[in-house]
Amino acid sequence: MIEFKEVYERNHMRIGNITNNEFFLELNKLNEKIQEEFLKKIIHETRSVTCDVMLGDSTTKQVETFDIKNVEVFFGDFNSKLSEWSSQGVTYSSDEDLRRIFIKSEIRTEDYILSLHASLQYHVLLYYRPLQKVIELQKKLAGLINNSGDSESKYKDESERLILEKLNELGFKDMPKQELFELFYNDEELALKIKKMIDESQPEIIDIQDKKNQFFKELDNLLLETFHTTSVMIDEQKLVNGEEGCLCNIDLEYVDNGAKQGLIDASIITEQLKVRIRQCVENILNVVLENKS
Known about the structure:
By secondary structure, the protein is α+β, with helices and mostly antiparallel strands. Helix content is about 50%, strand content about 25%. The strands form three sheets. Strands 2, 5, 6, 7, 8, 9, 10 and 11 form an eight-stranded antiparallel β-sheet that branches. The protein has a two-stranded antiparallel ribbon with strand order 1-12. β10 and β11 form a beta hairpin. The longest helix has about 40 residues.
C-alpha cells in the first residue's frame, strides 16, 4: 500500500489508499461507504436460486446459480444515472469458463479526471436442460457412433489411398508428411478438389458425419449455463489472476498538455475544484444507494 502525503505520484491516484491529506481522507471516507454499499448490492443481485439440470450420464440434480441479468440491469442503471460521465456501457468479457461483466466510466473536471471501474468476475458451469429430448439425442448419437466405427476406419484408409493416388498423378510421389501438409495449406484449390473426390467416393460416410454433427448441434442448443461467484471485494491483481469477486475502483488523474499524469499535488487543487471532485464521488455513492434493494 502506498502512503500519500501532499504529493501523490503513481500512474493514477487510487481513492481509498492510505493518505494524510485532509481532502483525500474525506474522499476515502466516501469510498469506504461506496465499497460497503456496492458489495451489499452485488450480494443481493447474485443471490442464489436453485435449478434442475441434467448431467452427461442423463442423471438429474439441483444446482445453485444466480441470474446474471440482475447484475447487467444494475450496472446499466449505474451507468445511466451517472449521466454526465462518459462510458461505453455494460461490457462482457470471457476466457473459457471465466466471465466478467463490468462498466468503466470517467468524468473530467478542469484538469482532473475521475474514473470508475465496477466489475463482477464469475464462473460459468454448463449442464444439459432436464429434458427427455437430451436422452433421445444421446441415444441416437451413441448408436450412430457404435455402428459407424468400422465405416469411419475404412473411410480414413480410403481417404489416404485416394490422396496418395491423386498426388502420384500430379507428380508428388513419396512426399514427406510435413511437405504434404504445406502443399495442402498453400494450395487450397488442390485441397478442396481432393476432399470433394473423397466425399463423392463414400457418400454414406459423409451422411453419417452430417447426422453426427447435427445431433451434436442439437445437444449444444440444449445446454444450460449456470453461474457462480464469491461475494467479496477484490483488487485488480486478483481480477487479472482470475479470482471470483467484485471490484469498484475510483481513480483520480491529472491532465497535463493532453496527457494523463500520475502526479497529483493536493496543495494546488482549489477549494472550488475540491468541492466538484467531492460531488462527483458523492454522486457514485448516491447512485449505489438509489439502487439499494
